[in-house]
Specification:
Order of helices and strands: HHHHEHEHEHEEHEHEHEHEHEHEE
Structural class: alpha/beta
Largest sheet: 6 strands, parallel
Number of helices: 13
CATH architecture of the largest domain: 3-Layer(aba) Sandwich
Number of domains: 3
Shape: elongated
Number of strands: 12
CATH superfamily of the largest domain: Response regulator
CATH topology of the largest domain: Rossmann fold
Strand order of the largest sheet: 2-1-3-4-5-11
Length: 336
């Protein structure tokens, strides 16, 4: 029977890196404001070479805090959300933190359950992707739980937000419709309790309104954020003698459902109906390379969300301006 490998202690890491034990502890626990980048790199390299692993369980018991970050996500099956989750997990792991994924289904009760459960596990912070208003969320914020709101702004205001400028994105789609000369426009919008859905909807309508091209009330249809929702909303828009010339969808999944209904009705895209999506879902390259859409920088979310959490942990002002990520229009064949 081979002898049990000797456990490497923090003293060995400090000696190899040429720093104090306190510096090693701060760097490996993410409290590294007093160490420069060269020192932090040296400490991490020493820990890696020696195979040192901090005793997180003991630290958590002493400080009632772990190196865990909870990501609450509204729909794990949606490739848009999954891509953002992957970006956040990768960046957190690169900064010595571990992510726990919780699927809320946009259910306020389930969101509150996970917020309470994660606090019982002493998570260091929460990234809340697709927040919905709930009492548990208000209590968590009031209690000082570090939360970065992702893609949707805090339902009751305040907090730290990471996402794109959805109003500007909606305006950009409307601008494209105007440039193409689409006179009879419609929108299939998502849930308006969501700041993301509401703001892109308001931006789109506002720009068309200023141009004197405001859609008729009959062309403003709620369709949720799913393929099924898009398909059903398309039935309400297209099963009529006169249908819209161009339709802006709350996300790409809705656009998929709309496209299917167009095909069933014998309507050609874009000759009869132009379609514009939102998110540039990662599946587009495989299932919808024809879809014009608003591209969201999935890979940029990880660094932005992680930086936001570290700033909260290090005592930065949580009321600072929102982290606004860039977006761009991906013009493909469906909206020519």
């Amino acid at each position: 029977m081979s002898p049990k490998p000797k456990t490497v202690g923090i003293q060995a890491v400090a000696a190899r890196a040429g720093v104090s034990i306190a510096t090693v502890s701060r760097v490996l626990n993410g409290i590294s404001t007093k160490a420069n980048e060269e020192t932090r790199a040296r400490v991490r390299e020493a820990a890696e070479v020696l195979g040192y692993r901090p005793a997180h369980a003991g630290r958590a018991l002493r400080m009632r805090q772990t190196r865990l970050v909870a990501l609450l996500i509204p729909d794990i099956a949606n490739a848009f959300y999954s891509a953002i989750a992957r970006s956040i997990e990768t960046t957190l792991r690169g900064r010595d933190h571990t992510m726990i994924l919780c699927n809320t289904g946009e259910d306020p009760g389930l969101q509150d359950f996970y917020l309470e459960e994660m606090q019982a596990y002493h998570v260091r912070g929460v990234a809340l992707l697709g927040a919905v208003e709930s009492e548990g969320l208000a209590q968590a914020l009031a209690g000082g739980l570090p939360i970065a709101f992702v893609n949707r702004k805090p339902p009751r205001g305040g907090g730290v937000f990471v996402g794109i400028d959805n109003v500007a994105a909606g305006e950009a789609v409307a601008e494209h419709f105007l440039a193409q000369g689409f006179d009879d426009c419609a929108v299939i919008h998502g849930p308006l309790h969501s700041s993301a859905s509401r703001e892109r909807y308001e931006g789109f309508l506002g720009r068309l309104g200023r141009a004197g091209r405001a859609p008729s009330p009959a062309h403003l249809v709620a369709g949720g954020l799913s393929i099924e929702g898009g398909y059903q909303a398309a039935g309400r828009l297209l099963d009529k003698a006169r249908h819209p010339r161009a339709i802006f969808c709350s996300n790409d999944l809705v656009a998929y459902g709309l496209y299917r209904r167009c095909r069933e009705l014998g309507l050609n895209v874009p000759q009869d109906v132009a379609i514009f999506g939102f998110d540039d879902n990662p599946m587009n390259d495989w299932v919808a390379p024809w879809l014009s859409t608003v591209h969201i920088p999935y890979d940029a979310f990880g660094a932005a969300v992680t930086d936001a959490l570290f700033q909260i942990w290090e005592g930065a002002d949580t009321a600072r301006p929102a982290e606004s990520l860039p977006f761009c229009l991906k013009l493909r064949g469906s909206a020519e």
